Amino acid sequence: MKTENLEYRDGDVTLKGYLAYDDQTAHKMPGVLVMPEAFGLGVNAKNRAARLAALGYVALAGDPYGDGFETADLQEAIKLATPLMADPVKFRARGRAALDKLASLPQVDASRLAVIGYCMGGTFSLELARDGAPVKGVVSFHGGLGTQAPAEAGKTTAKILVCHGAEDPFIPAEQFTGFTEEMTKAGADWQLISYGGTVHSFTNPNAASVGNPGIAYNKSADERSWQAMRNFFDEIFAA
C-alpha cells in the first residue's frame, strides 16, 4: 500500500490531504473521500484512509482548513470550523475541491465515488449530497445533520447513510427530526442508524482526550458503523 501527502487547491487556499491506495493494483479503483473532524486532518482520518485502501479503494483524507492544519484544542477547533460552516457555498466548495482532486487521479474510477466524514466531516459529506455532487453515496459518522441550504427534490442523487449516537448532546432532537423530514421531502435514498448509549465522536479512540463527557469513543458503535459502511459500499459500488 502506498501513502503520500497530496496538495490541491480551493481558489487561493492551498490544501494538503493524505492519499492511500494499493499501488500493486493495475485497474482503476473506486475513490472514497474522507473528511475529518473539526480538529483538522489528523491521525483518525489518515488511519481511516489507510483502512479503506486495504479494502481496495483509493482514499483521500481531505484538508478542511489549509496547509494540513490540525489542533487538539476544542475551542480552537470551534473557532476555525464556525465561519467555514456558516457559509454553505464556501463549505461545499471546500469539499468539492477535495472530491475533484480525488476524481482526477489516474488510479481512480471517477464514475464510482463516495464521501465519508466524521463530525464536521460528516456534515461535509451530507452537504455534498445536498449539492448534487457526482458520487454514488455518502456516509456521515456522528456528523451535524442541520443545514442552511436544504436538499431540493431530485437534486440529491447520492444514497445516504447516517451513523448517529443516540445520546449525542451536540445533535438536538429537532435537528435529527428536521433531517429525516428534509430527506424524505427531497425524495432522497437515505437511511439512519442510531446507536444506543453512544455520544459524539464515537469512532475516535482518542476522543476522551478532549475532556468533554459528551465526546467519547464507543468500540461497539465504531465497529458496527464501519461494517454498516462496508455493506453500504458493497451496495452502491455493485457492478
What is the element layout, followed by pairings?
Layout: E1 2-10, E2 13-21, E3 29-35, H1 43-54, E4 58-61, H2 74-86, H3 88-104, E5 108-118, H4 120-130, E6 137-141, E7 159-165, H5 173-186, E8 190-195, H6 219-236
Parallel strand pairs: 3-4, 3-5, 5-6, 6-7, 7-8
Antiparallel strand pairs: 1-2, 2-4
Could you characterize what this model shows?
The protein contains six helices and eight strands; from the N terminus they run βββαβααβαββαβα. It has helices spanning 43-54, 74-86, 88-104, 120-130, 173-186, 219-236; strands at 2-10, 13-21, 29-35, 58-61, 108-118, 137-141, 159-165, 190-195. The radius of gyration is 16 Å and the shape is globular. The two termini are 24 Å apart.
